[in-house]
Known about the structure:
This protein has 185 residues and is mainly α. It folds into two domains: 5-90, no CATH class; 98-169. Helix content is 73%, strand content 0%. Helix 3 (25-44) runs antiparallel to helix 4 (53-68).
Amino acid sequence: xxxxxxxxxxxxxxxxxxxxxxxxxxxxxxxxxxxxxxxxxxxxxxxxxxxxxxxxxxxxxxxxxxxxxxxxxxxxxxxxxxxxxxxxxxxxxxxxxxxxxxxxxxxxxxxxxxxxxxxxxxxxxxxxxxxxxxxxxxxxxxxxxxxxxxxxxxxxxxxxxxxxxxxxxxxxxxxxxxxxxxxxx
Length: 185
């Protein structure tokens, strides 16, 4: 079914929205998720240097929508499938196998959620209490505020360094099994 050109143009202004309207759900979700993740990192983790990527993603999404609206449904399905295959080929070590994801990474994901929850509790409950206490005692709380504000960036920076070290080392090596040659009876 032919999609409305005006609606495709309107949805093209939302990164990934135009692709989703045209039926390329994987590609649209990938672009929308990437744009949202970068925006989140900029706002909450104070990684402002990532802002230079947002216009690139937006323009790519916009013009890709306009160019894709003339494609047949078969071509759209093929492009959507090639999008995920391209990213799996680009970074095979980072391609997510969803059936193994929960079994392998659930512990790290859970630890991350616990730490994030503790940070939110500290930031939203204990930090205001400490601020009030510091004001009553006449102590400048500026240093504490800066530490709390910079904590997520510090954690992300340490995680990026740890990932880099892991990649440089080559990750986990498969265990070598001893080969025993069969020499007969």
